[in-house]
Design a protein that fits this description.
V-type ATP synthase subunit C fold, globular, mainly alpha
């Protein structure tokens, strides 16, 4: 697939850069190497040989630190070459809402949030902590989350309220970029999250009314379709991104690469944390998305 409109041509250099970076993505064989390593220390050395920072298997926080460093390097590298750096916001925004939930829970419990905060979002964590100027959607989520915790004392309900605000922010941001591909990507992410919400709720014996209240708006699948089992099957997001990688140049291959990196970071966390906890390799392998 080759496109020639002006916006896509703007992405020629970025697309070429991403094609080079794709060669560094971890393959199934490299995950197998990590799973087959004789010890956590051996797995950590392998990880470094794959281009990641040093980790100490017995200290989980070093695993998160190495993955956060890799994420930030990716954001910085692509932010310098893509025409619209706002496209990266769709990958940064969830970290803002992670910080918001962390701060609200710490505030309610009277403990320090520092160990769980990240600087991968659009907004410095200090701005959230100190009540600095925030994007409207994030400010509204902070107010609503605090109110939910104040009135219900239920952290799970607060998570639901804030997550809904997060995905609203993601979709609005994607639509403002003018990228139909990016908006489609966010809608499919919402579908994926909603299917997870439904699965967990069914496992816990929750009612349909509870599920409707927890589902996130903005996806392709309507709540009734999800509840009845008529929604599209799993795998739609992966297929969408696979098609995007076939586009010669444009925002599609750039964003598909970012999504692939996010999957890689999630997989590595599963493998490294799982090994440190003594989880069998077969169980970890089943949880990987490759």
């Amino acid at each position: 697939m080759t496109k020639t409109n002006g916006k896509d041509v703007d992405y020629l250099a970025a697309s070429a850069y991403v094609r080079a970076l794709e060669a560094e993505l971890l393959t199934a064989e490299r995950y197998e190497q990590l799973l087959a390593a004789k010890s956590g220390d051996e797995a950590a050395k392998l990880l470094q040989s794959f281009g990641y920072g040093a980790v100490e298997p017995r200290r989980p926080e070093t695993i998160d630190a190495a993955l956060s460093e890799a994420r930030e390097k990716t954001f910085e590298a692509l932010g310098g070459v893509i025409p619209d750096a706002a496209l990266l916001d769709v990958f940064r925004i969830p970290y803002d809402y992670h910080n918001l939930k962390t701060l609200l829970k710490a505030e309610a419990m009277g403990v320090s949030p520092d160990a769980l905060l990240t600087e991968l979002g659009r907004v410095p964590s200090a701005a959230l902590r100190d009540g600095g100027e925030l994007p409207d959607c994030l400010a509204a989520a902070l107010a609503e989350g605090r109110e939910v915790l104040h009135t219900t004392r239920d952290a799970q309900l607060m998570d639901v309220a804030v997550d809904k605000r997060c995905f609203r922010d993601l979709l609005e941001t994607a639509e403002r970029t003018g990228s139909a591909f990016l908006a489609g990507h966010v809608r499919l992410r919402i579908d994926e999250v909603n299917r997870s919400i439904l699965t967990r709720a069914r496992r816990m014996g929750k009612t349909d009314d509870f599920v409707r209240g927890a589902l996130i708006e903005g996806g392709n699948a309507a709540p009734d379709a999800l509840l009845s089992g008529d929604a599209p099957a799993d795998g739609a997001l992966a297929a969408y991104l696979a098609r995007a990688r076939l586009v010669a140049f444009g925002e599609e291959p750039v964003l598909a690469y970012l999504a692939a990196r996010e999957t890689e970071y999630a997989n590595l966390r599963v493998v490294l944390m799982g090994r440190a906890a003594g989880v069998p390799a077969d169980d970890l392998r089943a949880r990987l998305r490759v």
